[in-house]
């Protein structure tokens, strides 16, 4: 099976680079001007998101199969090639994050298929990988400077606390995690503890980060931490409702788009306690 790899070192933490990879516009930007179009998966990529791809008149459908702190992968599920997979793996190093991009595909057999691999497939794939490396680096460095919204993944007795937004109109009814913006001069842990007092009337202790940073806008990202209750019983002071949910309910919840990305990480958290 032909495959091509390209490796780039990005001076940013692995969870931030993982966040940059989730920006759907990055994929579109990486192929612009190369005769390839990728659309769909608006906003942030998550497992199960669908992307439409085309090279000239040839079209295909890609599905995201992995989107977490280890990187992203997408596979062709409907298209002209028997198999095609794009993947980016992340490796944390002392000097930053190593980004390993890989394209693998199977062409229809025979001499024409092999010729197409050499003439079109490899040249195009190399250009895509080069463009992608630059786009990932730039987006990750932009996210390093971004303002942070912190979220708390509060667990108790194997359940996760979620809350339902009441405003603004486009977010009302959707579920999210307690939290909010980090104010100037606050640490992320202090901001999260403050938000939990304001929103739920509880004191928490803050643990490790869960999942990747999730880009919200060009200059804002969501960063979620595991947390435990220290005192108080959560009540919806600013939200429509709060609810304790089991791991089996996470997939089906009507999340805000950014939180959907965190479902695998939240499932891992609930399964580990
Ligand atoms: N708190 C929280 N905000 C989230 C989550 N997911 C997500 O996309 N967001 C977005 C919604 C908002 O655009 C932004 C934070 O909004 P917020 O209303 O909670 O923040 P805040 O209390 O600091 O209030 P504000 O200054 O934004 O008015 O982050 C989440 O799980 N928790």
TrEMBL record:
Residues 145-270 form the Nudix hydrolase domain. It holds the Pfam family NUDIX. It comes from the Bacteria. Its cofactor is Mg(2+). InterPro entries: MutT-like, Nudix_hydrolase, NUDIX_hydrolase-like_dom_sf, NUDIX_hydrolase_dom, START-like_dom_sf. GO terms for molecular function: 8-oxo-7,8-dihydrodeoxyguanosine triphosphate pyrophosphatase activity; 8-oxo-7,8-dihydroguanosine triphosphate pyrophosphatase activity; 8-oxo-dGDP phosphatase activity; 8-oxo-GDP phosphatase activity; metal ion binding. SUPFAM superfamilies: Bet v1-like, Nudix. The keyword Manganese does not apply. Its EC number is 3.6.1.55. One of its GO terms (biological process) is DNA replication. It catalyses: 8-oxo-dGTP + H2O = 8-oxo-dGMP + diphosphate + H(+). Transmembrane segments: none annotated. The keyword DNA damage applies. Keywords: DNA damage, DNA repair, DNA replication, Hydrolase, Magnesium, Metal-binding, Mutator protein. This is 8-oxo-dGTP diphosphatase. It comes from Umezawaea tangerina. The lineage of its organism: Bacteria, Bacillati, Actinomycetota, Actinomycetes, Pseudonocardiales.
